[in-house]
Amino acid sequence: MNIHEYQAKQIFQKYGVPTPRGIVANTPDDAVKAAQELGGSIWVVKAQIHAGGRGLGGGVKLAKSTDEVKELAGEILGMTLVTHQTGPEGKLVQKVYIEEGADIKDELYLGVVLDRAKEMPVIMASTEGGMDIETVAEKTPEKIIKVAVDPAVGFQGFHGRELVFGLGITDKAEQRKFIEFANALYTVYMENDAEMIEINPLIKTGSGAFLALDGKMGFDDSALYRHPEIEEMRDISEEDPDEREASQYGLSYIALDGEIGCMVNGAGLAMGTMDTINYMGGTPANFLDVGGSANAETVAKGFEIILKNPNVKAIFVNIFGGIVRCDRIANGILEATKLVDVNVPVIVRLDGTNAAEAAEILKNANIDNVIAATDLGDGAKKAVEAAKGV
Predict the structure, then answer these.
(1) Domain check: are 220 and 256 in the same one?
(2) Are residues 87 and 145 in the same domain?
(3) Which DSSP state fits 39?
(4) Distance (Å, rounded) from C-alpha 145 to C-alpha 168?
(5) Is 195 known to be catalytic?
(6) Mean pLDDT throughout 265-290?
(7) pLDDT value at position 293?
(8) How confident is the model at residue 294 (pLDDT cuts 50, 70, 90)?
(9) Residue 366 pLDDT > 80
(10) Could you tell me the CATH number of the domain that includes residue 254?
(11) 109 an active-site residue?
(12) Does 61 map to a domain?
């Protein structure tokens, strides 16, 4: 689950992570009231969507009067903001964050992510604040400092020293402030079951203070039951409605750009299926893992969600029966044909528990557009051929 910048900063403030003052607004008039409440003579009007690159897309503007705040808020609210993270369809801006101006002397990058290879959180820092970290990683990877923190030990002074020395911070007072900042951010990450925190840019002011000028946070959905106050921050309008619907049925679904719908059990097999489809010359239209508790209803719902995508020309069902039995999937396919207009070829590869029974169920059903496959390669090949009309 992701949250907005203003929500991330609310969490930061609880842990003593310094941020500029700001107020969220839903209308241009509310934006003016927010600017007046904040005071000062300069404000930043920021679009609130779950995506980075807002500034480059025209979603972050500087205002030097309350009239300008109102004008800019009116321009940003209701716009479809397109960034490199939203895709070409963009996202509708429904909120803006009015933030006080800041004295920016330098811009840095600071983030905390999970390194699955190291099996521990990694703090990443860079002098290239304000730039896409992906671009920095590609062109100048040496400018990214990575410090792994063992949760059993926690953030220690030597972690902080490695960060400040790597960033070239030499002033003793600034070193202390930065280490305190990084320590607080690590605490935010650990105590809230975050998957990712990113501050880009983290600014150093003229007085040598460090402020989170931006803030992104993503959370482990499986741990949200421990954080009801964070789950309340969920903005459903920012989430893909099909992905949201799928999750309610215990399905893991992610929409992609291809033409072959995929229904698989197990994330590893799903990734392998997608790779094989690509190898055979096709492109997957989605990732869909029915999990280990699939039944006829969830399989039917999976078909329904896959077929909402008008680009789908064929569906490849690839099930290795272990926890979920193949005959249950076969019955789900038959149920789907009754509940949903399955108007594209369905290639089915079922192997494992009750595979023979499943094959008999599908054979006796005598459904014209259901095509049996012997293995993964055969199924992927037939799915690609079917999508191409062969």
Answers:
(1) no
(2) no
(3) -
(4) 11
(5) no
(6) 93
(7) 64
(8) low
(9) no
(10) 3.40.50.261
(11) yes
(12) yes
- Angle between the N-to-C axes of helices 326-339 and 296-306, in degrees from 0 to 180, rounded to the nearest 10: 50
373 vs 55: CA distance, rounded Å:
49
Domain membership of residue 312 (yes or no) is yes
Q: Report how far residue 292's alpha carbon sits from residue 209's, in angstroms, rounded to the nearest whole number.
A: 51
User: Tokens 């479809």 identify what position?
Assistant: 80
112, 94: one domain? no
Catalytic residue among 97, 109, 186, 253: 109
H, E, C per residue of 289-320: ECCCCCCHHHHHHHHHHHCCCCCCCEEEEEEE
In this prediction, residues 295-321 reach a mean pLDDT of: 86
CA–CA distance, 28 with 187 (Å, rounded to integer) = 36
Q: How confident is the model at residue 100 (pLDDT cuts 50, 70, 90)?
A: very high
pLDDT digits (tens, 9 = 90+) for 368-384: 788 888 889 999 999 99
Instruction: Assess whether 225 and 247 both reside in one domain.
Output: no
State whether 160 and 14 are in the same domain: yes
Stated as kind and residue range, the H or E segment containing 72 is helix 66-76
Q: Is the pTM of this model over 0.85?
A: no
How many domains in the chain? 3
Is there a single domain that holds both residue 118 and residue 90?
no
Going by the DSSP 8-state scheme, the letter that residue 284 receives in this structure is B
Active-site annotation holder among 5, 198, 259, 335: 198
Phi, psi of 80 (to 5 degrees): -95, 105
Domain that holds residue 328: 241-387
Buried/exposed code over 334-350 (b: 16+ C-beta within 10 A; e: otherwise): bbbbeebebebbbbbbb
pLDDT, one tens digit per residue, over 158-200 is 999 999 999 999 999 999 999 999 999 999 999 999 999 999 9
